[in-house]
Amino acid sequence: MNLSKKIKFAALLAASLLVTGCGSQANIGYVDSGRLMEEAPQIKTVLDEGRQKAEEIQKELQTNIENNPDWSEEEKNKATADAQRKLMGINQAYATQLKYKLDEALAAISQEKKHAKPKTMTDCEGSALFEMSRTYMKFRSNGELITGIGTLNDKQISFRLQVTSQDAVENDAYNANVLFYGGTVTPLPPVVITHPYGKMEKWIIQDTENMVDLTFTPISDNPNVISAFVLRSEYHTIYGHFEGTLLTADGEKLSFRSLPGISKKFRIRL
Fold first, then answer.
1. Residue 75: pLDDT above 90?
2. Which residue in 79, 219, 237, 71 sits closest to 144, CA to CA?
3. Is the pTM above the cut of 0.85?
């Protein structure tokens, strides 16, 4: 590896550890996470310190190599390896600090909203699906979740299907897939979710028991990406509509077209 490649490699490593940003001006609830990452003083301080230390290490490596033109390839490799170890040390030291500061900032926002005046909804003819869950994430987690909700044959219908890295080993017996129709609950079997032409093209959702046979056509995507040191979360909340059939526990076949819904695709690295 020649001199320019070594320096570029170190710079790239520093950037990959310390660059932060967001995919778009997306909101989680009412919280602009990208703006929070850049403007919260306590978080910005941690990020700036980490960037500065990484830049110092990269400059030190560049200076050492330039001041020692007679170094052998082995000596250059050793200097580059030392710089990588220092960068990884910075990464580990600041990742914990960053997560702590981010949790603090989000908790403050949550507390502020908790004491806000409640709002009364005047439209009582709509449909809603409320979900509350608690998950212990792996270091690397991913998944796809879909939710459909609306009215079919003058009855309320909603369903929830998912495939995630948190699914149970025996997912035939334990899964979160469910259908609500006309006040009746139908547990649904595990499904396979595919979108072979990309997440903004047609999704196919099917099972092996002929209870689920759906397609989801995306209309709009609301991406939210947070990247800081080794921590990274990428969420895509996609609005669209469903078409296909579902089978209730009583054997009733429900067929529909253009049923509104939302799909979520996420990837998290802690």
1. no
2. 237
3. no
